[in-house]
């Protein structure tokens, strides 16, 4: 520790702890926080896991934070993915949200900067009409049911605590097929009015390939949907929608699963991770020139050997951190669902969790990557 850091700590010691933690420390640059993080266990926990500090920090600038949130059998876990030399901010400990009476947690839909969007269902009731969306704030520990009955897998959550720490927006994308024309429309929910409205915007794509959305992410009040061959987006600030073609699949073979994500939280890069039937994972990145570039091809043979024996039922990969870590979700007929991380550079595989439930659900219903939605990011034009 240098002299300036020592002088700063001496001054800080004379200030009440709650003022230091939540009114002063959030103003510090991330490089300073990364140095202070190793001073003591209390500060390490504050900078790494205190979600109140993270919310304060988000209101001032874009911090570095990435990781994975996944549903276990009786609670929700957060697994931080540290970037060497930098700092994870505000990855809370395990928890289970307070739910309305008679409701149980069905799946995770999104986690954006401390705001959790999940699906609930009535206990002992398998009727899908009783599935409801529920938003829970990790900081305030308060939640409420979203009115209406939207198809929960495709709902995008936009939340910018730097400007509106209590307001968020949901967008439900709806897909219709008219012959060889595929139409996407949007319903918008505002937490200010607690109502859904129908947007005038539509996206029309010609073709017979099923473009039903597979997953979505939120970056700076723009929600992006991965729609197999196209990327769709809705910009809430500009009130515009659009679409762009993803890299063609024909040259790669048959696709098993794909996800869009974000790598490098200091400068956001949109990524596309494809799991192919030819025992490979292909990773694409959207570069500064506005083009998709394939920058990695990984064999799945080793990853599957780590997962377990039997016939493969589920295999999904999510690129995270600085683009060098894959979070992998697998399930075989003879094993339970397993989550582990794979370091592309070192080849090291680390088991994160084994889930007791063997119930097969759709993409991201157990696992969801968390990233800082306020990162600096090259947007689509």
Strand content bin: 35-45%
* Unreliable residue stretches: 358-365
pLDDT averaged residue by residue: 77
Helix coverage percent: 10-25%
* N-C termini distance: 45 Å
Multimerization status: single chain
Overall geometry comes to globular
Q: How is this structure best described in words?
A:
It is a single chain. With 381 residues, the protein is mainly β. Helix content is 13%, strand content 44%. It has six helices and 23 strands. Strands 3-4-5-6 form a four-stranded antiparallel beta sheet, with no helix packed on it. The chain has a four-stranded antiparallel beta sheet with strand order 7-8-9-10, with no helix packed on it. The radius of gyration is 21 Å and the shape is globular.
List the main descriptive attributes of the protein structure presented here.
4-stranded antiparallel β-sheet; 13% helix; 381 residues; single chain; 44% strand
Give a nutshell description of this structure.
The protein is mainly β. Helices cover 13% and strands 44% of the residues.
